[in-house]
User: Fold these one by one.
Assistant:
Number 1:
Amino acid sequence: MMNILPDFKIVPKEKIADNFLKRRITTFRQAIDYIQNLEYGRNSNKDDLNTVFTDNKGTCSTKHAVLKQLCIEHEMDEVKLFVGIFKMTAVNTPMVGERLMNNKLSHIPEAHTYLKYKGHYYDFTTKTSSPNDFVKDLLFEVEIQPTEINRNKIQLHQDYLREWLDENTEIGLSFDEIWSIREQCIMDLSK
C-alpha cells in the first residue's frame, strides 16, 4: 500500500524540510520511515511541530502533522491529514484492554490522526501501526490542517465524547471520568 503514496525529493524550503535534511533524509519515503520509527510519546509543545525532532518522539497527531506539513512545503496537496474517531477496544488496541475492562467499558471513542491519499488510509504512528487497526471501527472523520492537531482536535474529541455519553446514559460516567479513563489509556499506550 505504501507504494501508492507519492515520493518526492525534499528540498530546502521551511523548517520541517530543513529538519529532515539536517538528518540526511532526502525523500518523502525516508521521512516516513524516520517518523514511524520514532518513539511514541507526547511532545513538549504540540503547537510547534519541530518538537518532534527535538523530543525524538511523537504521537499520531504530531507525527502525521509533520508529514502533512512536509507535503504542504512541497505542494503535494493530494496527501490529506485526517482526524477520525474510532471505537478503541481491547481487540484493536490490546494495551488498553485491561483499563477498559476495569472500568466496565467495551470501548471508548478515541481520536486518531492519519493520512489519506486517493482514498487510501496511512498510519505511521509506529512501525507496526496499520489502518486496519482502526478503519473498521471508524465512527467519524474530518480533514484537518497541521495547525489543528492541538486545541481543535481536542475540542472535536471532547464534543464527540459528550454526545456519546448523552446517548449512552447506561455507561453511568461523567465526562470528567471518561476523559480521565481515556488519558489513562493513552498513558498505557506510551509504556
Note: Strands lie at 39-40, 57-58, 79-88, 108-117, 120-122, 138-144.
Number 2:
Amino acid sequence: MNSWKVLESGVDSALNHMQMDADLLKDLENHQQPILHFYDFRTPSATYGYFVKPEQFLHLENAKKYGLEIARRPTGGGIVFHLTDFAFSVLLPRTHQGFSLNTMNNYAFINAIVKTAIIEMIGKSYDIKLLKSEIDEPVKEASYFCMAKPTKYDVIINEKKIGGAAIRLTKSGLLYQGTISLGLPEENFLKEILISKDVLNCMKNNSCLLLNQFSSPTTKLKLKSLLAEAFCCN
C-alpha cells in the first residue's frame, strides 16, 4: 500500500488551484504516491468541465457583477459553484491498488471512501449510500451542473446528492476533483447567474442540504480531518 501525501495549498484563485491539480497529475508518474489535495477559494468561484462552454449556461456579465471567478478544470464533468461546498482533489498513480482502467470503478472506489468520512461526520442514522444507477432527469441542462443531477456512484443521502466529482485518466494515473455540498448558494444569486431557471429547481430538488447546518470553518476542519483519515487507510 502506497502511503498518502496530504497536500494543503491554502487559499488561492480557482485558476491557480486548477493549474496545480493539472501539474500534480502531470508529475504523478515521477512520484508514484497517492495525493489528497485540500484547497480553499479566495473569491466566490465556479469551475467547469474541460469540454463545457460556460457561456451557454451562465450569464457571464452577472457573474462579473458578483465577482464570481470562473475557471476550467483539467477534468470533465459539469459546472460546480464553490460558494457553499467543500472542494478537494485525489490523485492516484497507476500502481495504487485502488486504480482501475475503468473510470466508473475509480469513481466508486474513491466515493466509497468519501462516504465513510461523511458517515463519521454526521452519524449512521441517515441513509447514506452510493447511487447504483443513473437517475432520469428531464431537464437537459441539468446534466451540465454537478449538483443538479445525481449520477451513478455519487454519494447520496436520503436519495439526494451530497457529493460528486469528475475524473481524468492519463498514462500516469488519475485526477479526481470532488465536491461535498454544505448547502446551495443563495437563490437570488443562482437566479441571476443561471440561464435556465429549470436548473435551479433541479439543484433544489436533487441536492442534499443536510450539511447546511454544519457550514462553518470548524466543520470544514473536521471534515478535512475525517477525509484524510479515511483516505490514508486505503
Note: The chain has one domain: 5-232.
Number 3:
Amino acid sequence: MFAMQHPKFYTPEAVLRGYFHAKDENRPHLLEEVFSPDAELVVRNQSANIAFPPLTRGRSAIAEVLVRSFALAYENVYSFYLGRPRPSVREFTCPWLVGMSERSSGQVRVGCGTYEWAFEPHASHMARRLVVDIEAMQLLPAAESTPVFAWLRALNYPWSSADRALHGLPANELLSPIAQFLSRHVARA
C-alpha cells in the first residue's frame, strides 16, 4: 500500500533557492517545487545582449524558457540574490546578479536587474508570478572568463550583497553598467 502524500509547504527562501538550482544547474524538474502550475513569468528586458519572451504562462512553459532553452545556450551559470526574503512574505523584490558563459563561443555575460516574486497565499506558498527586470547584460570576450569567474566564485551562493559583489568586481570598462547598478544598491542598503 502506498503512503498518502501530504502537500509540501515552502518558505519564500526555499522557493528562491530552488529556482536558482533549477536554472543554474539545468534541472527543470526542480521547478515543480518553485512555481504553481499556472504561474506567470514576465520579462522586462532593457538589454540587446539577451532575449526572452516578454510573457510566459504555466510552469511547463517557464521550465522550457528559463531552464531547457537557457541551458542550450549558456553554461557556468552563477546567479545571486542581493537580498533575502523574510519567512512569511507574500511578495518579495530584490536585485540580482548573474554571470555565465556562452556554450558556442565561450564569451562571458554578466547581468543584473531586479526580481519581483509573488507567492501563493495558501497551501504550498509556491511562486505564482515572477517579474524579471533585466537592467544590463554585458558581453565580454572569452579571455575575461578567468577574472570574472574567480569573482563570482568568491561570492556566497545564492545569497550575496551588492556591497560584496561590488568590492570584488574585476576592473573592466565593459562591467561599468554592473558597477553602477551595484553602487546604487549599496547606497540603498
Note: The chain has a mean pLDDT of 93.
